[in-house]
Structure formats: structure tokens, C-alpha cells
Specification:
Blueprint lengths: L20 E4 L5 H12 L3 E6 L3 H12 L5 E5 L5 H15 L4 E4 L14 H29 L10 E6 L12 H21 L4 E8 L14 H8 L10 H12 L10 E4 L14
Parallel strand pairs: 1-2, 1-4, 2-3, 4-5, 5-6, 6-7
Helix pairs in contact: 1-2, 1-7, 3-4, 4-5
The structure holds beta-D-glucopyranose (BGC).
Beta-D-glucopyranose binds next to loops.
């Protein structure tokens, strides 16, 4: 009970994103890595952004290219305006254009509130929120310049913001992270409203507990995992492919009428599991 990691996985449709160009930030590990690979499996060429861990990023590139599409690794700090602009320029230079941005890069710097330093607060806001702002802005410029190419997609571009269940679930000891994700929600919805008339679809995915390095302590031991499962009605901790598959679907024309939505991919974590009994 609790884990179905060995269960058969869904298969990514190979041609769903054929001919599209994608950029995934923070794609050298965790959710970003799985998403970059899944986009490649679906036929997209993929830029694998990373800030540290060049070898991991190169390994992701290798795995993506084994599916017969192009991929390249690009080092950039998403919170640095110049580096983001240079990354977009490189992407357009290499792939000609961009169709899909997955603004995924994110981190945690946890501390009880009165012990949280300004540096911890700032770092998380810089990467998780400002980083998405900068990447979305540069991507939107490319989408607007090019417009819709009907053979490629019904939309002029797709932006997927990686949020979290903590865009609505308050989280003690993580005020910087929860505030950044609350910000991502309103940024995403505002961008969706502003850009929809230009045929740019902006949406978010809000993952719950997914087995990645960011939350290893929460699932690594059987005791920790058991504790975590109390918060997950579906009774398994998610894995990165759960999010990657949602991202592929959301980026595709199967979801062309989905605009400004947050897709919660959380095994029911946002369903107030504490109320399953009592209340
Ligand atoms: C956090 C994880 C956490 C999960 C559920 C994610 O956004 O990054 O550390 O396990 O939310 O609480």
C-alpha cells in the first residue's frame, strides 16, 4: 500500500508535440528533468536549462536526443535578467523559435518565521517568482513576434508555470516558499488574462508531494512516507512523471481551450484530507 512505483506507466503519445520547441527551466533534476524528457518523447525539441549540475543536464540532453529530437543544455540563473535574455536568444538561434515554456526552476530555503533571514526570503522569491516572471516575459516576446503557425499549434505559445499545492495551502516554516507560490498563482492568472487575446495560453500545474530531491526528508524513510501519506487521499507519493505527463497534455492542443487554469496534480492533497473523518 502507498506505493505503486512498479505499476505500469502511461505512455506519452509520440507525435503530440511534433515540431514544437520547448524550454524547461531547472531541467537537470526532479520534475523539470522528467518534464523535459516527456516533452522530447512527445516530439518536441527541448532546451534543458540548469544553473548548477552541468553533467546532469548533459545526461538529460542525451536521453532526450535518443528519442530522435534535438536537445541542448543551457546554463542560466533564471533570476538574472541578462542571463534569461541570453538563454532565449540562444534558444531562438538554435531552434528558430519557441512554442512552449515550462517555468519550473524553484527551490526551498526553510526556516521558522522569526529565524528566517532576509537572504532566505529573497532567494526564494527571486528564483520561484521573479525567475518565472523573467522567463515568461522573454518567451511571450518570442510568441508575439511569431504569432500562430497553424501547422504547429492552435496557440501562438504556451506557458506552464510550475506552482505548488502551497499556492493555496499555508505552510508553517516555509513562508517564503508559500508566498512565492501564492504569487505564482496570481501572476499566472494575470498573464493568462493579458495574453489570451494574443492566443498565448498561460496555465499552471500545482504538484503535491512528488518524490524529488527538494523534499527527500518527507518520503525517504518508511516512517516519513507513512506520515506523508496521511495527507494524500490517493495513498501514494507522486513521482516526477505524474507532473511531466500533465505538462505534456497541458502544452498540447488537446488542452487548447484551457486558459488561466491551475491543474492540481496532488493525489487529492488539496481536498482537506483531515476532514475525511470528523468535521
Ligand atoms: C514542496 C515539497 C512538498 C510538497 C507538498 C511542494 O511544493 O516543494 O517540499 O513536499 O509541496 O507539501
Amino acid at each position: 500500500m502507498g506505493s505503486s512505483q512498479d505499476a505500469p506507466r502511461a505512455v506519452v503519445p509520440e507525435h503530440l508535440l511534433k515540431g514544437q520547441k520547448a524550454l524547461v527551466t531547472g531541467a537537470n533534476s526532479g520534475i523539470g528533468k522528467a518534464t523535459a524528457i516527456a516533452l522530447g518523447k512527445a516530439g518536441a525539441d527541448v532546451v534543458v536549462n540548469y544553473v548548477t549540475g552541468r553533467e546532469d543536464a548533459e545526461a538529460v540532453v542525451e536521453e532526450i536526443t535518443s528519442h530522435g529530437v534535438r536537445a541542448l543544455a543551457h546554463e542560466a540563473d533564471v533570476s538574472d535578467e541578462g542571463q534569461v535574455a541570453a538563454m532565449m536568444e540562444h534558444t531562438v538561434q538554435e531552434f528558430g523559435t519557441l512554442d512552449i515554456l515550462v517555468a519550473n526552476a524553484g527551490l526551498q530555503r526553510d526556516a521558522p518565521f522569526t529565524e528566517m533571514t532576509l537572504a532566505q526570503w529573497q532567494k526564494v522569491l527571486d528564483v520561484n517568482l521573479t525567475g518565472q516572471f523573467l522567463c515568461a516575459r522573454e518567451a511571450a516576446k518570442v510568441f508575439l513576434r511569431r504569432g500562430v503557425v497553424p501547422e504547429v499549434s492552435r496557440a501562438a505559445g504556451k506557458i506552464i508555470c510550475m506552482s505548488s499545492v502551497h499556492q493555496i495551502i499555508p505552510w508553517s516554516g516555509h513562508v517564503n516558499y508559500a508566498a512565492s507560490k501564492g504569487g505564482v498563482q496570481m501572476m499566472m492568472e494575470t498573464l493568462a488574462q493579458e495574453l489570451a487575446p494574443k492566443k498565448i495560453r498561460v496555465n499552471a500545474i500545482a504538484p503535491g508531494a512528488i518524490k524529488t530531491p527538494i523534499n527527500r526528508d518527507a518520503w525517504q524513510t518508511p516512517e516519513a512516507e507513512k506520515d506523508l501519506l496521511r495527507l494524500i487521499p490517493y495513498d501514494r507519493v507522486g513521482d516526477p512523471d505524474d507532473i511531466a505527463h500533465a505538462a505534456v497534455a497541458l502544452a498540447s492542443d488537446l488542452m487548447d481551450y484551457v486558459v488561466g487554469a491551475t491543474l492540481y496534480v496532488d493525489g487529492g492533497m488539496t481536498l482537506f484530507p483531515g476532514f475525511a473523518t470528523g468535521g
